[in-house]
């Protein structure tokens, strides 16, 4: 049997395993959930409503007829795995993988993560008839071919409802470009600025792209640069405007997601953005707010003043990169349109941006920088990065992207550790 034939059979067997108990209810569940006038007002304005959780109980508490999707990431899936809900499934999946010729710890790790993501996502689809964004293993963030392969497999389990989440990295953006051409709906995640999303929309044309606005506010506040209020909101609305202009000119179909929402008030402040994905806590706060329907207005044209101290050098720290798409970025993308991008490697993409004076967008992080970020968690410590930010070798948006990926990796590592612990206990 050829290697290609073996791999095809292997993929089919794993797909059958994850689908064995799946019983979809496409377009039959809406009437089971109550309508809500405030959520409906947001829908009338033009905002799609998603919940950012993988927890069924939390979803049931907040889901109304106006919601359409759920986003699950490495952190949220890890919470479900740590609860023990899949402890009986894990040894069964491992046994199947072993029987089918899976070899090496890395392959087992990726396949087990795929199985758990897929089965949990299908459970959410079945329960809520929701579109569900499933995120790839963090080890694939810099692996173009690996990212392509697993994305196609995620989509194949339920093309009616699955979106695939891929992070903003050189490999991730190139993978998203190819997948979008194959009509695989990509939610390109871990975006933090208007310029990142401008690049992504033109280069990869994913179905969805993001600004993780709450983390921008937290970075500002935790590093003593100001209150942090409205930093992320300003970046989100700037990105929304940039992406909308590209749509108007037929250069993308991408929709803007406001992600990392922390409160009900932020939902009000971002009304009109293409999509808001919110954790259950923020959804509950909005639902309980004493606010009239007519007070919920389209805020896309609003100018928020970011809570940054007057003595903080915004330009040197790179805050301007969050909401400004400068001429250099536009010229870089215009030149890229003349290249055979489909032949690019991730290294080619990094080199191209560097040669065009935009090397702070796609940064070639060294191992020391990655380790520092991993130890910091989701919010970078300014003291570790101020020199690089001031020199322009990295952008604030690219730093936040690295931090986001690092925090997801930490949770992915914790999940993998739990999975192999359960396997060892059943040997």
Question: Unreliable runs, pLDDT <50, ≥5 residues?
Answer: none
Provide the gyration radius in Å. 21 Å
Number of domains: 1
Q: Treating each run of at least 4 consecutive H or I residues as one helix, how many helices?
A: 20
Strand content: 5-15%
Spatial order of the strands in the main sheet? 1-2-3-4-5-6-7-8
Structural class: alpha/beta
Tell me, rounded to a whole number, the average pLDDT.
Answer: 96
Question: What does the main sheet amount to?
Answer: 8 strands, parallel, barrel
Judging by the overall fold, what is the CATH architecture? Alpha-Beta Barrel
- CATH class category label: Alpha Beta
Shape: globular
The tally of strands reads 8
SSE pattern, N- to C-terminal? HHEHEHHHEHEHEHEHHEHEHHHHHHHH
State the separation between the terminal residues, measured CA to CA: 30 Å
> What name does the CATH topology carry?
TIM Barrel
CATH homologous superfamily name? Aldolase class I
The percentage helix is: 40-55%
InterPro entries: Aldolase_TIM (IPR013785), TAL/FSA (IPR001585), Transaldolase_AS (IPR018225)
Pfam families: TAL_FSA
Organism: Anaerohalosphaera lusitana
GO molecular function: transaldolase activity
Structure explained in plain terms:
There is one protein chain. By secondary structure, the protein is an alpha/beta fold. The chain has one domain: Aldolase class I (TIM Barrel, Alpha-Beta Barrel). 54% of the residues lie in helices and 9% in strands. Strands 1-2-3-4-5-6-7-8 form an 8-stranded parallel beta barrel, surrounded by 8 helices. Strand 4, helix 8 and strand 5 form a beta-alpha-beta unit. The mean pLDDT is 96. It is an enzyme of class 2 (transferase).
């Amino acid at each position: 049997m050829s290697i290609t034939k073996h791999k095809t059979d292997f993929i089919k067997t794993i797909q059958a395993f994850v689908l064995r108990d799946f019983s979809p209810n496409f377009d039959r569940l809406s009437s089971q959930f109550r309508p809500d006038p405030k959520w409906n007002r947001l829908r009338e304005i033009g905002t799609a409503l998603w919940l950012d959780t993988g927890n069924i109980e939390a979803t049931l508490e907040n889901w109304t007829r106006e919601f359409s999707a759920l986003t699950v990431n490495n952190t949220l899936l890890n919470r479900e795995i740590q609860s023990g809900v899949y402890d009986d499934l894990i040894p069964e999946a491992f046994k199947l993988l072993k029987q089918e010729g899976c070899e090496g710890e890395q392959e087992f790790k990726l396949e087990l993560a795929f199985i758990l993501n897929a089965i949990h996502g299908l459970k959410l689809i079945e329960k809520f008839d929701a579109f569900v964004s499933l995120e790839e293993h963090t080890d694939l963030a810099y692996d173009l071919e690996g990212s392509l392969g697993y994305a196609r497999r995620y989509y194949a389990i339920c093309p009616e409802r699955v979106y695939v989440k891929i992070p903003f990295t050189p490999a991730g953006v190139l993978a998203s470009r190819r997948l979008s051409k194959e009509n695989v709906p990509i939610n390109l995640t871990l975006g933090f600025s208007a310029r990142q999303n401008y690049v992504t929309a033109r280069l990869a044309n994913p179905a969805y792209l993001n600004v993780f606005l709450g983390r921008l506010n937290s970075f500002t506040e935790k590093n003593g640069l100001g209150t942090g209020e409205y930093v992320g909101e300003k970046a989100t609305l700037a990105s929304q405007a940039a992406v909308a202009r590209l749509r108007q000119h037929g250069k993308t179909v991408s929709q803007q997601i406001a992600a990392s929402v922390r409160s009900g008030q932020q939902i009000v402040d971002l009304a009109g953005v293409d999509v808001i994905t919110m954790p259950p806590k923020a959804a509950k706060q909005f639902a309980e707010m004493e606010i009239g329907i007519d007070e919920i207005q389209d805020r896309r044209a609003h100018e928020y003043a970011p809570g940054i101290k007057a003595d903080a050098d915004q330009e040197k720290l790179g805050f301007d990169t969050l909401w400004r798409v400068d001429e250099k970025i536009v010229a870089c993308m215009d030149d890229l349109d003349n290249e055979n991008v489909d032949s690019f490697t991730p290294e080619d993409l990094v080199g191209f941006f560097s040669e065009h004076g935009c090397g702070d967008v796609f940064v070639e992080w060294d191992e020391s920088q990655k380790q520092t970020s991993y130890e910091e968690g989701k919010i970078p410590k300014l003291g570790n990065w101020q020199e690089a930010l001031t020199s322009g070798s990295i952008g604030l948006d690219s730093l936040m992207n690295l931090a986001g990926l690092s925090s997801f990796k930490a949770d992915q590592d914790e999940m993998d550790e739990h999975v192999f612990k359960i396997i060892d206990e059943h040997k």
